[in-house]
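It is worth pausing here to work through a concrete case rather than discussing structure prediction in the abstract. The textbook approach is simple: state the sequence, then state the predicted structure, then interpret. We follow exactly that order.
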Amino acid sequence: MRTLGALAVLLALSACATVEGGAACAPGSQAGTTAELYFGRNIGDRPGVTDAEWRAFLDEEVTPRFPDGLTVIDAAGQWRSRESGSIQREASKVLVIVLPGGADDRAHLDAVREAYRRRFRQEAVMLVQRPACIAF
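Step two, the predicted structure:
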């Protein structure tokens, strides 16, 4: 009886999805990757990217590359200027995407970042990717 119980536990554990580092995801969830992109809204030293411009950017650049869904969070960003060393603050957007797991995920993320930099004359768009357990 103990042997059957131990075997059942081993089979259950082997069926669990794992995230980077080998941690198991809870039953009902699967291993995946999330991406967070951080977009400053200032253009130069002043506010510049309007809500309408942001929505157009989402519609034209982000949604075609990640049509399955995303989350946008309003944020207040802070960073140190490379030129002056002073602390800069600006309204920001954080875009959170559960990546579909395709070979082109990173290329799509980089294309979104580059499109934003070009369109709104930005120095950078920060990207953070994390392993995650995902359930719906």
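Step three, interpretation. The chain has three helices and six strands. The beta strands are 30-40, 42-43, 46-47, 71-80, 87-98, 126-134.
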